[in-house]
Amino acid sequence: MSRPDLNLLVTLDVLLAEGSVAKAARRLKLSPSAMSRALARLRETTGDPLLVRAGRGLVPTPRAVELGAQVGRLVKEAQALLRPAERLELARLTRSFALRNSDGFVENFGPALLARVAEQAPGVQLRFVPKPDKDSGPMREGAVDLETGVVGGSTGPEVRTQALFRDRFVGVVRAGHPLSEGRITAARFAAGRHILISRRGLDRGPVDDALELVGLTRKVAAVVGGFAEALALARGSDLIATVPERYTGTLREGLLTFPLPVKLAALTISLLWHPRLDADPAHRWLRGLVKEVCGGSSPT
Fold this sequence. Notes:
The protein has 10 helices and 12 strands.
């Protein structure tokens, strides 16, 4: 069975309202012949004459009268659906957003973000979910509304991105660690026992590549999946963690942070979302809040 032409609903609505092919044609900016052909298609589709001649005018058949109220309602609903979204009323907004981030985001930026949301849109709930990988599938499937992180090769080509801030890697040890005294050279840094952060469980990372360039290697004593785990180990041992500076600010409280004695490329932390949410007013508002909260000067 062929799918009916839904444009005929608008045509029928106008024909029934005007009761005249000529007047309906003028209203829809069509020629009288085009409107006559549209009426013929309506008659064929519905199996009813719909409008029949009575003197010089046209009158609706019982079937047309029956359809009239339904058609008018459907056309109005369709027009409401297709018009631009009305101005967002944050005070009345009731919605839940899922934000996927690596550990460190909630601790550093969560309180300020929640405070702004509560002030502007108290009916909005934020659900912070863990980020075990960079797969864009959850965004594509609608399970995640917004994400922060480094754009990589596994990021879906359709995903929208916006830079939030630049970050750099720093070294972190417990207070009183041997590296807390004296100049931290590449040799002293490499001689320590290290924690490698790898969500995929790798035994080598960018620090190893940087050390290799200056003829050094390090001993990786532990491999963990996130920043919080690495910093917890550094806090309770003599292990050395290497983490992004801004992203882990709160997590590093009470620990000694130092610039790395080897060169590592800076990071750009970005906001990521699926294009289907690009024009959504509430989503645009939330993106603006996250950018505002994460804004500020980058590390030098």
